[in-house]
Amino acid sequence: MAQLWGGRFTKETDQLVYNFNASISFDKKFYRQDMEGSIAHVKMLGKQGILTGQETEALITAVKDLLDEIEAGTLEISHEYEDIHSFVEAALIERLGDTGKKLHTGRSRNDQVALDMRLYVRQEILETDELLEKMLNTILTIMKDHVDTFMPGFTHLQKAQPVTLAHHLGAYFEMMKRDRLRMQDIYRRMNYCPLGSGALAGTTYDLDRSYTAKLLGFDGPSLNSMDGVSDRDYLIEYLSALSTVMMHLSRFSEEVIIWNSNEYQFVEIDDAYSTGSSIMPQKKNPDIAELVRGKTGRVYGALMSLLTTMKGIPLAYNKDMQEDKELAFDAIDTVKGCLALFTGMLSTMKFQKDKMEASAKHGFTNATDAADYLVNHGVPFRDAHGIVGQIVLYCIGKNISIDDMSLEELKKISPVFEEDIFEAVSMKTCVEKRLTIGAPGQAAMRTVIALEEEYLSQDWKKELPDWEGELLK
Fold first, then answer.
1. Catalytic residue among 25, 78, 261, 277
2. Domain ranges (residues) in the chain
3. Distances in Å between the alpha carbon of 216 and those of 121, 166, 188, 286?
4. 359-453 carries CATH number 3.40.50.700
C-alpha cells in the first residue's frame, strides 16, 4: 500500500480499510487536471523563489513527461496508490528524488482535489455546451424545412389546435437554449481557483494565488480558504442543469415514441437508431428514445446523492466529499452520450407530413377557428362554442373531419355558415393567421428562425482564454 502520510502512524492500515478509503479507481479520471494543476503550482513556486529555477524546470519537465506517457499508453496509473495525487507525487519522487518531494510545498490534497474537480467539471461544461449546440443546429435545420408541415398541437395529450412541425420543435429549441445559458452561468460562477487554500486555513508560504489562477484560466482565486476546499455548489448546479437537460430530452423522447407508434406514424426512425424484436418480426422499436427516457432517473439520482451527501457536512473538508465523484462522472458521461445519440437519431428521422396533417384535421384542431368564424359573423361566443360542439359530435358519428362536411350539412346546424367557412378552417389558414411573435404562422416562424440563427452564430466559448495551450508550452 503506497501512501504519503504514514509518519503519524505506527502500523499499516487494514487492507479492507485502505480499499474502502482509496479513490484512485475513479479519481484517476482527472489525471490530466491533476498534472496541469501541479505545473501551475510549480511555476508559481518558482516565480515566488520558493523553488529554485533548476528545481522548477526539473519538476515541470517531469510532470509533462508523465502526462505524455499516460496519454501515449506507455505508463499505467497504478492502483497501489491511494489516489491520483499520491500516484503523481510518488512517480516524481522516483524520477527526481528529493526534488520530487518539493512538489507538494504549500499545497494540501484538500485544495488539490478541489482544484482537480473544478478543472474537470469546467471542461465537461464546455463539452456539454458543444453537444447542446449541435442539437440546436439539428433542430433548426428541421425547423427551416418544416415551416409548412401542419400537425396537431396538444394539451392533456388531446389534439387541440393546428401548429407546424417547425413550431413544435421550436419549443425544444428554446429549452435547449436555456440549457446552454445555464452552462454559461455555471461556468462563470464557478471560475475561481481554490488552489492555495491549503487544508483549510491557507499556508504560511508566500504564494501568489492570483498568478496560479491566471495560469489555469480562472477569473481569480477563491476568497475564503475554508469554502475553497469544501465548496461543491458548482457541481450541484451542474448536476441540476444536467438533470434539466435530461428532463427536456425525456419529454422529447416521449413524443418521438408516441409519434413512432402505429397509431400516429408521424415519424420513421432510421434503422441505425432502432432495434427489432427477437420474436415479433414486424417490430421496429424506438430503443434510443426509450433509453434516453430511462436514463433520466439515473442522472436525477446523482444530483440527489450529492445533495444528500453535502447536507450534513460541517466546515471544512470531510472524507464524505469523496462521494462527489463516481455518480457525477457517470451522470456526466450519461448526458453526453444521450445528447450525441439523440442528435444523431433526430438528424436521420423522416417526418410523415401527410400523416401529421391528416391527424390535425381528424382531431378537430380547427374547431376553435370554426367558432371564431361564427363570432366574426355576429354569433355570441358561448353560442358559437355550442354550435361547433354539435358539429364535432356530428363528425365523430360519421367518422369525418369538419373540412369533409358539405355546406348543406353545416347550414343544418347553423344557417350562418357560408362557402368561405372552408377557407376559414383549412389547416393553412388556421396556422397562417397566427402571426404574433412566437406563434406558428409562417411569417412569425421565419422571424424566429432568423433570430435563432443569429443566436447560434455567437459562441460564448470563443471569449475564453487558451490557458491550457500557454500552460503546457
1. 277
2. 6-105, 110-354, 359-453
3. 14, 42, 14, 44
4. no
Residue 167 among the catalytic residues: no
Q: Is the pTM of this model over 0.85?
A: yes
Residue 430 near residue 439 (C-beta atoms within 8 A): no
Catalytic-residue membership of 277: yes
Q: Is 3.40.50.300 the CATH number for 6-105?
A: no
Confirm if 216 and 120 have CB atoms less than 8 A apart.
Answer: no
Query: Would you place residue 5 in the very low, low, confident or very high pLDDT band (cuts 50, 70, 90)?
Result: very low
Q: In whole angstroms, give the CA distance from residue 115 to residue 193.
A: 7
Specify whether the CB–CB gap between 221 and 212 falls below 8 A: yes
Q: Are 414 and 374 in contact (CB under 8 A)?
A: yes
Q: Which one of 156, 278, 406, 457 is the catalytic residue?
A: 156
The angle at the Cα of 186, spanning 180 to 192, to the nearest 5 degrees, equals: 145
Provide the pLDDT confidence category of residue 381 given band limits of 50, 70 and 90.
very high
The CATH T-level fold of domain 110-354 is: Fumarase C; Chain A, domain 2 (1.20.200)
Number of other CB atoms surrounding residue 199 within 10 Å: 16
Of the candidates 144, 127, 131, the one whose C-alpha atom is nearest the C-alpha of residue 452 is: 144
Mean pLDDT of all residues in 1-14: 54
